């Protein structure tokens, strides 16, 4: 099945994915059982197997929707590319953190490669380009360094920040209710101090 078939209106495949997206956003990744998705879609518990050979394939189709939404947010945040690479990275970081906090269940699912069939259903086609944006910007911001390593370290920092913030740990530790200063510190840590700092 193709990405287009996942979106075909009225089709059971698309309905299963939509139900899964709604379920993960409401109740988290643990709620995504085949039986529960089928029940909420109004079909027998065996019906999803006609469209998804494995549970992992259905979870991957659901996660792909999350990557598509995150990709749209990142594109909007980065804008037309006229801002400096550093400013674009900060905007990307804000979009990433905001997505994680707005959609914690989906955010968890998207990066649980132990649950996903990332080589199937073109999941990598939606996840890897996002990292590619960060690599490209890191290369422009730090031409002296290995862009993939800088991007990987920054991504790990952002992801950890998102996770700790969603659990309330960073607010407790820092006494802050705004992740903005932490984001700026992370950008400075990986790119060096910005102008005027």
Question: What's the helix and strand layout?
Answer:
Layout: H1 3-7, H2 12-27, H3 34-41, H4 55-78, H5 85-102, H6 104-110, H7 123-141, H8 147-166, H9 169-174, H10 180-191
Descriptive notes:
This protein has 197 residues and is mainly α. The protein has helices at residues 3-7, 12-27, 34-41, 55-78, 85-102, 104-110, 123-141, 147-166, 169-174, 180-191. The protein contains ten helices and no strands. The longest helix is centred in the middle third of the chain and has 24 residues, at 55-78. The termini are far apart. Mean pLDDT is 89; it is low at 1-6.
Quaternary structure classification: single chain
What helical percentage do the residues reach? Answer: 55-70%
Shape: elongated
Structural class: mainly alpha
Q: Determine the mean pLDDT.
A: 89
The main pleated sheet reads as: none
Kindly provide the radius of gyration, computed on alpha-carbon positions and rounded to a whole number of angstroms.
18 Å
Distance between the termini: 51 Å
User: How much beta, percentage-wise?
Assistant: under 5%
Tally of DSSP β-strands: 0
Helix and strand sequence: HHHHHHHHHH
> Low-confidence parts lasting 5 or more residues at pLDDT below 50?
1-6
Q: Helix segment count? A: 10
Concise structural overview:
Helices cover 69% and strands 0% of the residues.
